[in-house]
Structure formats: C-alpha cells, structure tokens
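Justification of resources, computational component.

The compute hours requested in this renewal are based largely on the per-chain cost of generating structure records like the one below. Each record pairs the submitted sequence with a full structure-token output. That output is archived, and it is also reused by downstream analysis tasks.
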Amino acid sequence: MKRSVLISIVATLALLISTSVPAQELSKTFMVQNGAAPWFDRVGVWSLDNLPTKLVGMGPLPQQECTSRAINVPGTPTSILLGVSEGDLAAFKTQFPAAHETGDVFAIKNATGTAMPYKVLLFPNPPAIIKGGFNAGLILLKVDPANTANSTGSTGAPSNVSPSSLQAQQSSAAFDTGFKEKLHLYLLIGQSNMVGRDTRGLENQHTDPNIGCLDGSDHWVLAKEPLPPNGTGVGPGTSFAGEMLKKDPSVKIGLIACPVGGTPLSRWVKGGDLYERAVKQAKIAMEKGELKGVLWHQGESDCNQQEQASTYESRLTGMMRDLRQDLGKADLPIVVGELGEFLQPTKGYPFAELIRSTQKKMPSLVPKVAFVSSKGLVDKGDKLHFSSDSEIEFGCRYAVAMSQLESGTPSQ
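The structure output for this chain reads:
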C-alpha cells in the first residue's frame, strides 16, 4: 500500500497570522475570519492544542477548500482524517456512519485559553462535500492517496490524476543534477496562485528530462504539476521552466517550489517560518546548481486589512533585500506577478488595488526586479485562483520577464 500523503493540519482559513507568534508555533496557529470555524468567534487567533505528532502537516489547505460550514474534499481520496468537535460528534456519526474514531484527540484553543475538545475520525471514501450544519466546524487533517476508480471528485479531475498520486509518481522519477554549472535554479515563492489550484490538465502532462524540481524530501525529481511538496493543481512553474529551456537548450532547469496557499507576507519576511524554509531549500538546491532567479506571487492574503496593504511596499522591498543577502546574490533577479484582475474590492478584497499598484512599481523601487501583468488571465471559477490555462500563460510571461532581467534588456 502506498504511504499516506499528509496534506494539512488546518482546513480553515489561514489568513493574516499574527507576527507575534513564534515561528515554530505557526504550523499550529491560524486566524478565524468572516465566519470560518470555530463559528462562534468571527475574528480571533486560534491554535491546535496537543495535536498528535503524526498528524502535524505541511501547512494550510487553500481557502476554497473550506466554507463556513462545509469542507470540499480535494480529489477522490481513499480516506481522510477529520477533526470533529465533541459537541458535533454524535450528529456527525449519525449522518456519516462510515466514519469511526481513531482514539486520537486534540483541542482548538483561542487566545484567552478557552479550549474546544476534538476527536479524530477516519472517514473512508468520503463524499466530495462534507456538510451538515455542525456548530463547531470540521478540520481536515490528512488526505490519503486517491482511489484508482475512474470517478470524478469535487475538483473535476479524474481520481487517478489527483495531486497525491501524481506526487507519488514523481518521487520515483529521478532528475539528473550532474554538471553543476549547467543546472539553472529558480526559487518559486508566494501563496496559492504560485502553487496552482486548478486540477484541469493534470492528466495530459509530459515530463522533460531537462526540467526537475526539489521534492519534500530534498530529492531531485522530474518536474510535473502539481509541483511538490505543496502542490494541488497546475501552477506556472513547469511552463516557465519550459520557456527558459527553449532560450538555452544547453542547460537544465531546476525548480525550488516553496509556496504555501493562504499565507500572508508576514510569514515571508525574514524571521517568518516560510521565509526561513525557502532560504534553507534554496541553499540545499544550490549545492547542485546556480540560483538564477526568483518568482514571487503573493498578496491575496494582505488585501483584507488596510494596515497590511498600506505596509506591503516596505515589507516586500525589505524581504527582497534580505533574501538576496541571505542567499549571497546581491543582484538576484526577482519577478513579481500581479494579483488576478478578478480580485476586486467589491468581491471581498477591499485593498486589492493598493496591493496591485505596489506590485506594479516594484521595478522602480528595487533594482533587478520585473513586474508581470495578469491582464486577460481568468480565474478557475472561484474568483480567487487562476485557471490552468491562465497559470500556463502566466508561467510564459514570467519567463519573458526573467529572460529580460538576465540579459539586461529593459522590461516591457
């Protein structure tokens, strides 16, 4: 049996995590916002308390995987592990008798120390949507590899091409990292639109022996969407790599994919857990090749509050400065991708235009930085994430901008 793939410890919204929380605790901490679980507190900092070590995951699932009283199960997994509050346990088991307790327990604790006890349930062959008006909400803890039956899940992708199974296939396809001077590395950082959330097209991919990526175990594998370790859909990475390879077929392209969905800039500045992890991964990759540039797409999680949006410019320029210093490359090219045009103030993102305007002027604020427009690119239907086709086009646009930075050609 294939080893289970641990996707996440949090399926609630993971927006605007407090910078006062120590970095080592961020993996257990999330913000409650706009009616997300636990439902009785609209805004507050909560943490997972006494979570069994075996259930600690790789970061929050994307925003669209959880609505205020329901969970959209990604793909068509063999089974999932859910956290269900003790108050909802009887109703949940009545509605879903196939689910049974594992014996593991934990709690959700708020900033004042109030705790809500939860029990862990194993749910085999879960439905695409789990809902039922549960008062305290559900937490998606773990997703096992997909069924092999030819069925379609909530994402619209066939089960045999789910993110979990694709990443398992990738792990056996080694990528040759010989000839260090010929391996050009690119660091991919940001949130869900750098990850990719649309699963359409995953089944039609072909690997290129000259394009690889670093997986979650620090091994080099052939690159294939979704890029490990946090991928769930088609992102811009492989199309970017393909275009860069066309410009110089004599090299190999190595992708260092570190983005995490639903993450604010506060976690990407120096001292933040995701910044530190990205620097560590980049240095591991640099043992095999030369770091040539960075792709950055983030800002959705900083659109909701004026303080985060108004300080975005100073924090992002500081992050770029620190990143170059920590990686030992003072002129490291960085390409900034624009928020999707579909993110609008009237659609729940009141400061989207402020973030976009900041992104556009980054080349005038920091040397060796380019901006890539999202003009004409469309969402996958959720008004938050780019469609697969748009992600592929975005990757091509990133490649044009990166090539211009590398050659010294003025950005267009």
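Confidence is low (pLDDT under 50) at residues 1-43, 57-68, 146-172. The chain has ten helices and 16 strands.
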